[in-house]
Design brief:
The complex is a heterodimer.
Chain A: E1 6-15, E2 18-28, E3 33-37, H1 44-51, E4 59-64, E5 67-68, E6 71-74, E7 77-80, H2 83-90, E8 93-96, H3 108-118, H4 124-137, H5 153-165, E9 171-175, H6 183-199, E10 203-207, H7 211-217, E11 220-225, E12 228-233, H8 235-240, H9 245-255
Parallel strand pairs in A: 3-10, 3-11, 8-9, 9-10
Antiparallel strand pairs in A: 1-2, 1-4, 4-5, 6-7, 11-12
Chain B: H1 4-30, H2 34-49, H3 52-67, H4 73-99, H5 102-110, H6 115-145, H7 157-167, H8 172-201
The chains are: A alpha/beta, B mainly alpha.
């Protein structure tokens, strides 16, 4: 039996008095692709933000490769993790954001080499080679010296994906990465994610509203409803034969949009 | 042109000291530690809330008497103007750092940068672009504030002008017009630099 790469154990999260996640149990295997779907406000984004250490769970455990992320063991007891521990564990995690969040003062190439060089200590030349290779793969090999503001949204998002991939994480998180894009550039970004997914080594958790894409790319679809996992399973089972009424209504709303 | 060297050296000293204080106090206000934060706030409010002239007198007359600290007039001028404008500029430092979009911190965290690396590679380069035009404005204001060191008997251009006027009372108009022109001529390159900085700053900043 292989050890799951990511484990959520009864994870709760409240913002002020509002409980957005009410006991999440989820496992992700190495290389597995998972799509998180569900109505807005159901807590999908919060699930992956906690894994990226951008939000702290209120209770419960999140493990990466068996190591607790938000806690560390001291004399057999789990205590709150410090910055050093967080850094050690989150090195295996990468994330692409809805609003790209490229560094505006750096060129495209620099965006993709700054962290490998400064965080991972990769040799500058090696980091640049890797970055160029990756940027060519996402179709932006001719924009190395451009600044983010000179690119379209779709291009910026492709850079953001490249920036994350060059860090060679074990799991990549995609937070509604096409929601802020013009409709005509959505396709090019999804294409890039598909290509990366095909290579297979990296696990992926995708929060998305693109149902067709979710089905194509995912090994498993997880449906979230009011802070709980309401249903999960193989894409075809979930999308074609939903069990619960809620999932049925949710999917219907999407179909009627087409 | 007598006194010009004093005006310029006081300006340069005050600027260097003031900018340093601005960064120290600006970071102090953002510190995790409550005591550092409180202490910095008290300093800033005291220096912003009282008059620069009174501060100069205080450092000149009260400090030696009270604490037995003897400083040269030059040091007193530089420290007082630097501390005073440093207090104002620390708010610029703090405001600019806070003005960098949250998404930038998050992206830097997602790339596993440490707190220091986030500041050094991502936040500060963007925040400084926002600070520079403001810093330029304050530099021009500091130039004008240097005229106050004449009251602690430093022979800057204002002091020299006043002496000359006292000796030749009929030439008051000429003397003050002359002073006006000199200050403006010194300010011109500063104004030009500030303009350039403004234009440069508008490039390469998050558009979100």
């Amino acid at each position: 039996m292989t050890q799951p790469l990511i484990q959520y154990e009864d994870v709760h999260k409240s913002f002020d008095d509002v409980e957005v996640l009410k006991g999440i149990n989820l496992e992700v295997d190495p290389g597995e692709k998972i799509s998180l779907i569900g109505p807005s406000g159901s807590g999908k984004t919060t699930i992956i933000r906690m894994l990226m250490t951008l939000e702290k769970p209120t209770s419960g455990l999140i493990k990466v490769d068996g190591t607790p992320l938000w806690h560390k063991e001291v004399n057999g007891k789990l205590v709150e993790a410090d910055e050093k521990h967080l850094r050690k564990v989150r090195g295996d995690i990468g994330m692409v954001f809805q609003h790209f969040n490229l560094f505006p003062h750096m060129t495209i190439l620099k965006n993709c080499t700054s962290a490998p060089i400064n965080v991972q200590g990769v040799d500058k030349k090696v980091a640049e080679e890797r970055a160029v290779e990756m940027l060519e793969k996402v179709g932006l090999g001719n924009k190395l010296d451009a600044y983010p503001a000179q690119l379209s949204g779709g291009q910026q998002q492709r850079v953001a994906i490249a920036r994350s991939v060059v860090m060679r994480p074990k799991v990549m998180l995609f937070d509604e990465v096409t929601s802020a894009l013009d409709p005509e550039t959505v396709g090019e970004v999804l294409e890039v994610i598909r290509d990366i997914a095909k290579e297979g080594e990296m696990a992926m958790i995708l929060v998305t509203h693109e149902m067709e894409f979710a089905r194509d790319i995912a090994d498993r679809i997880v449906f979230l409803e009011s802070g709980k996992i309401a249903e999960e399973g193989k894409p075809l089972d979930i999308l074609e034969n939903p069990n619960s009424e809620r999932l049925k209504t949710f999917l219907q709303r999407f179909r009627s949009n087409f | 042109m007598e006194g010009l060297d004093i005006t310029l050296t006081v300006l340069i000293g005050s600027a260097i000291f003031g900018y340093s204080i601005a960064f120290i106090a600006g970071f102090g206000r953002l510190a995790k530690n409550v005591f550092i934060r409180k202490f910095t706030t008290v300093y800033i409010e005291i220096f912003r809330g009282t008059s620069l002239v009174v501060q100069l007198f205080w450092f000149f007359y009260v400090l030696p008497g009270l604490l037995g600290i003897e400083l040269s007039s030059y040091m007193i001028g530089v420290i007082t103007i630097g501390m005073n404008y440093g207090a104002y500029m620390s708010e610029v430092v703090r405001g600019s750092i806070l003005a960098v979009p949250k998404g930038q911190y998050e992206a830097a965290t997602a790339l596993n940068m440490s707190r220091f690396q986030r500041m050094r590679f991502v936040i500060l380069p963007q925040a400084i672009r926002m600070m520079l035009p403001e810093f330029g404005n304050y530099l021009i204001q500091m130039l004008k504030a240097t005229s106050l060191v004449s009251i602690i008997s430093m022979a800057d251009i204002t002091y020299v002008g006043l002496l000359y006027r006292d000796a030749n009372t009929s030439e008051g108009v000429a003397v003050f017009t002359m002073l006006l022109v000199i200050y403006f001529i010194i300010a011109l390159p500063l104004i030009y630099i500030t303009r350039r900085l403004e234009r440069w700053a508008s490039k390469g900043v998050a558009t979100e």
